[in-house]
From TrEMBL:
PANTHER family: CARBOXYPHOSPHONOENOLPYRUVATE PHOSPHONOMUTASE-LIKE PROTEIN (AFU_ORTHOLOGUE AFUA_5G07230), PHOSPHOENOLPYRUVATE CARBOXYLASE. One of its GO terms (molecular function) is lyase activity. Pfam families: PEP_mutase. Keywords: Lyase. It comes from the Bacteria. This is Isocitrate lyase/phosphoenolpyruvate mutase family protein. The lineage of its organism: Bacteria, Bacillati, Actinomycetota, Actinomycetes, Pseudonocardiales. InterPro entries: ICL/PEPM, Pyrv/PenolPyrv_kinase-like_dom, Pyrv_kinase-like_dom_sf.
Length: 250
């Protein structure tokens, strides 16, 4: 089963690396490079469809992309479903099952209402999702406590909330917790220790710990988020600028 394959790859200290894709073509590139799982980036998928991030694209459009990816590759797919597109836990579970997704990434900022869900509210939603999906879906619970933090001191101030939420989400059945955009290795290490032995997802950022350090900290999963999409955008923009100036884009 795809979910079992995906779950087994979450090993603290030997992290699953996810170069997030945004369509069937980039998903094939990920698989061709030897990665055992494909993950989507909601922001990159939305941009490829002509929308801003933050659930501006419809769930039909987003799940259509996911279905196209699962049809194009033979490895598990984990889908970034943002905060669930306003769907109930049952509806979200059904939509993910229809795409043959093995997992999902779901955040605790409610994009429909423009607010942060309380820990108990989000835990209840996660519990409902796991109740309907069971072991057929690997749920990665994203924790947005660090998104507005600037510098180590602000990250440290956000740490207690992140740990409290992580424990609540794990108790609700989440398979993995994702304190997105932690840049301090020290703070991330404390978070990992506080929720051990549960798997922790971290973001691979240019100004954050490198892959070797993330592994040393005990992280079990590493996401690039919009990293590859931004890199592709920069390369294309550079080539177009060269072409516009009358020089070779190659």
């Amino acid at each position: 089963m795809s979910a079992q394959r995906l779950r087994a790859l979450h090993v603290p200290g030997d992290p699953l690396v996810l170069p997030n894709a945004w369509d069937a073509d980039t998903a094939r590139l990920v698989v061709d490079a030897g990665f055992p799982v494909v993950a989507t980036s909601s922001a990159a998928v939305a941009a490829s469809l002509g929308y801003a991030d933050g659930e501006q694209a419809s769930p039909d459009e987003m799940f259509d992309v996911a279905a196209r990816i699962t049809a194009a590759v033979d490895v598990p797919l984990t889908v970034d479903v943002e905060s669930g597109y306003g769907l109930s836990a049952l509806e979200l579970s059904d939509r993910l099952a229809e795409t043959d997704a093995a997992g999902c990434n779901i955040e605790d900022t409610d994009q429909q209402e423009g607010r942060r869900r309380s820990a108990s509210e989000n835990a209840a939603f996660l519990a409902g999702l796991k109740e309907h999906s069971g072991d057929l879906l690997v749920v990665n619970a994203r924790i947005d406590s660090f998104l507005d933090a600037r510098g180590v001191e602000e990250e440290r101030a956000a740490l207690p909330d992140a740990i409290e939420r992580a424990r609540a989400y794990l108790d609700a059945g989440a398979d993995c917790v994702y304190p997105i955009h932690v840049r301090s290795a020290e703070v991330l290490g404390e978070f990992v220790s506080a929720v051990s032995p549960a798997p922790v997802n971290a973001t691979y950022l240019p100004d954050g710990p490198d892959l070797a350090m993330l592994a040393k900290l005990g992280v079990a999963r590493v996401s690039l988020g919009t990293g590859l999409w931004r890199l592709a955008q920069a390369r294309i923009s550079g080539a177009l600028s060269a072409l516009a100036e009358g020089t070779s884009p190659f």
